[in-house]
Amino acid sequence: MTSTRVTTETVLSLLRSDPQSEAQLEQLAREAQKLPVPELVYLVETRASTEAAILFRVLGKVTALAVFEALPAPHQAELISALRTQQVADIIGDLDPDDRASLFDELPASVAERLMHGLDAEQREMTTAVLGYSRESIGRYMSPEVLTLSPGWSVREALAYVRAHAVGPETIYLLPVVDESRILLGVVGLRRLLVAEEDSLVGEIAHLAVSATATDDRELVARRFSAAKLLAMPIVDGEGRLVGILTVDDAVGILEEEDHEDTARTGGAEPLPSSYLSTPVLRVVRSRIVWLLVLAISAILTVQVLEVFEDKLDEVVILALFIPLLTGTGGNTGNQAATTVTRALAVGEVRVRDLPRVVWQELRVGMVLGVVLGSLGFIVAGLVYGPAIGMVMGTTLLSICTMAAIVGGLMPLVAKRVGADPAVFSNPFISTFCDATGLIIYFTIATAVLGL
């Protein structure tokens, strides 16, 4: 660990000195080759584009390819813009078609077109096939390089075929079985093929495949892939013909991207296109400012509510002391419910048609939480400020917890129903909504109990 840290500091020192001479670049190359790929990926991701390009240029071809494949597509695009060398063309030719398509999405059209022309005919055809699907469909993430078997082959023939063609495809652990028209008939695992009798037919040992259509939503397919604990999944067209295969690394990548997006939006920001340290300050500001403006405008509702009940506050000033507690409790309760339901939606535990059941569940949860917190509020506030204030606090906490839990559980389902991102409807909007509504409940109860 210490050796790696020292080498990293040496590499950073060389990069900061802007190496130009051949001797400096050779020294940088020697030091960089001592570092493991994850450390090189971190350095390329977190340095300025010029320094990242210099470091990448001195890497050997095998190491450079491993580093490049580990970078997210937006960062790959930045690196290409900074390099523009033959090394880039060679690396792009070695990428899998789906990874190549993701990279081309991030590049300017002129750069992508030039790189596409640098591919050979087979690579260009496979890349074009993947690019033909929308960015939200699973077809964009499949690999069209698939090793297929015929149901009429013997196990002996199938094994010989796999040995002869094992280098090109992205995976050989799951082998689709197709007929002459490439209609998917089933799949055979490599282990099953290895232990089967050599005279058995492939069609006899094949089993039904868990597959997806190329136009299916990428997140839904990736969730199903993960739930079934697959290593690979055949992808077919609308007529059941095999067009590609989804591998576990691509499924995991989709889920990580979706979770990253949901986490950012739940916190009231847009996801960053590349690593945090390499993202320009103005880009980080842009990812946050829109949501802050929306929330600031929506928070005006809270101010207007306070203005409406201003005379009540003048009569019983003590009511103002509890406003932060009540708004915070309502927002937190709603956020907890929204986070739980959003996650349940993502993993398929809840569907839009389950809305009544979700409301009933959150109604009961909210009431139990409200009884616990309301009882505590009644006792504490009653002892300090009198029974009347205690009654107001206890009843308000019960009402706010129940309302916030229902709203928090409801909004992600409503968002899903109208085609919006459930995460967008979560924490920021729920907090603002519960603040305003909670204050209305608070002052309504205070007016009734205290006779204001």
Automatic annotation (TrEMBL):
Q: Which gene encodes it?
A: mgtE
Name of this chain's protein = Magnesium transporter MgtE
Task: Return the Gene3D superfamilies for the record.
Answer: CBS-domain (3.10.580.10), MgtE N-terminal domain-like (1.25.60.10), SLC41 divalent cation transporters, integral membrane domain (1.10.357.20)
CDD domains (alphabetical): CBS_pair_Mg_transporter
Function recorded in the entry: Acts as a magnesium transporter.
Q: Which organism is it from?
A: Brachybacterium avium
Which PROSITE patterns does the record associate with it? CBS (PS51371)
Q: Where in or outside the cell is it found?
A: Cell membrane; Membrane
| Membrane topology per record | Multi-pass membrane protein
